[in-house]
């Protein structure tokens, strides 16, 4: 029997724990963590994600702050806003929704964020901390992917993990997290020779390339855990639908466990953002470790 890893249910558990930690922080320290989200432009999907982040933040008992800038905002305006948020001691977490409009350098804007408020874990400082195994803030989607894998196999040590995709948002940090779990990690990508054969070696196969249903059923080793990070909107039979980077129906025939799209990694991304916000608040304010 293949386990369908229920991202919505796991995210709900994580969010419930976060809400408890927030309540404890308020009653013990009179602190309400605050998350500021910066959205530039009109991308409809980004608007939905930012709205959902705001709702989730408030549901967890935290303060949600939204800054919306027009699509033609200058890079300097976005940088200046980030600097203001860095300087605002009531703000614990800062997130700049991606993608930014083409005339703005994402790298420049992201790296303006105070690393200790960088709840997306995307600054160079946090990337360096992750590689070095130091305490930092870890990118949300990779964090959620590992949590989901561990629900079906709590000890990943010694497993062969193949990560298809080498983005800064997912592929690279996910590879580092799996390495920290003592997996033997292969980072595969569009130029990997014989990608199907590489994937067939995986005990944990993670697909994060943004190509709908790239990973076929016969690329999946019998008994593998499949984590599908792709969220692709496609037209099929006259309808728009969301599909992952894995051919779910075929892959589930071989996998021992697999994440669906929707309802897999997506909900975990937001849950881990809330988690990072509570962690950032506790660390910045010297409140000790939080159990989330
Ligand atoms: N600054 C960031 N920008 C972006 C990130 C990110 O982590 N940080 N990730 C994505 C978008 N994203 C969050 O921002 C995100 C995408 C999808 C979901 C989600 O829950 N998806 C649902 C389906 C929703 C739908 O029907 O459209 C699911 O998979 O079940 C959450 C967050 C890019 N930008």
Automatic annotation (TrEMBL):
Binding site residues for NADP(+): 165-167, 231
InterPro entries: Aminoacid_DH-like_N_sf, NAD(P)-bd_dom_sf, THF_DH/CycHdrlase, THF_DH/CycHdrlase_cat_dom, THF_DH/CycHdrlase_CS, THF_DH/CycHdrlase_NAD-bd_dom
Keywords, comma-separated and alphabetical: Amino-acid biosynthesis, Histidine biosynthesis, Hydrolase, Methionine biosynthesis, Multifunctional enzyme, NADP, One-carbon metabolism, Oxidoreductase, Purine biosynthesis
Keyword set includes Amino-acid biosynthesis: yes
Enzyme Commission designation: 1.5.1.5, 3.5.4.9
Assembly and interaction partners: Homodimer.
Family: Belongs to the tetrahydrofolate dehydrogenase/cyclohydrolase family.
Protein name as catalogued: Bifunctional protein FolD
Origin organism lineage: Bacteria, Pseudomonadati, Pseudomonadota, Alphaproteobacteria, Parvularculales
Gene that encodes it: folD
């Amino acid at each position: 029997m293949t386990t369908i890893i229920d991202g919505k249910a796991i995210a709900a558990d994580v969010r419930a724990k976060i809400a408890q930690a927030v309540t404890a922080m308020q009653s013990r320290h009179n602190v309400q963590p605050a998350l500021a989200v910066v959205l530039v432009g009109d991308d409809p999907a980004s608007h939905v994600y930012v709205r959902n982040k705001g709702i989730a933040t408030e549901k967890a008992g935290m303060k949600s702050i939204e800054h919306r800038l027009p699509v033609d905002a200058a890079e300097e305006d976005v940088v200046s806003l980030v600097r203001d948020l860095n300087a605002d001691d009531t703000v614990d977490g800062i997130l700049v929704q991606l993608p930014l409009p083409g005339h703005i350098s994402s790298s420049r804007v992201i790296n303006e964020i105070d690393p200790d408020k960088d709840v997306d874990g995307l600054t160079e400082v946090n990337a360096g901390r992750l590689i070095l195994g130091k305490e930092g803030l870890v990118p949300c989607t990779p964090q959620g992917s590992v949590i989901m894998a561990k629900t079906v196999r709590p000890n990943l040590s010694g497993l062969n993990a193949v990560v298809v995709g080498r983005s800064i948002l997912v592929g690279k940090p996910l590879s580092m997290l799996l390495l920290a779990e003592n997996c033997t990690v292969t980072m595969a990508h569009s130029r990997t020779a014989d990608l199907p054969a590489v994937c067939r070696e995986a005990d944990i196969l993670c697909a994060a390339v943004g190509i709908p249903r790239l990973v076929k059923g016969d690329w999946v080793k019998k008994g593998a855990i499949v984590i599908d990070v792709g969220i692709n909107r496609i037209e099929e039979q006259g309808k728009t639908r969301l599909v992952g980077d894995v051919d779910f129906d075929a892959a589930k025939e071989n996998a021992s466990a697999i994440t669906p799209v929707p309802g897999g990694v997506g909900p975990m991304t937001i849950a881990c953002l809330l988690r990072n916000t509570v962690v950032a608040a506790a660390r910045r304010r010297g409140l000790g470790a939080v159990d989330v």
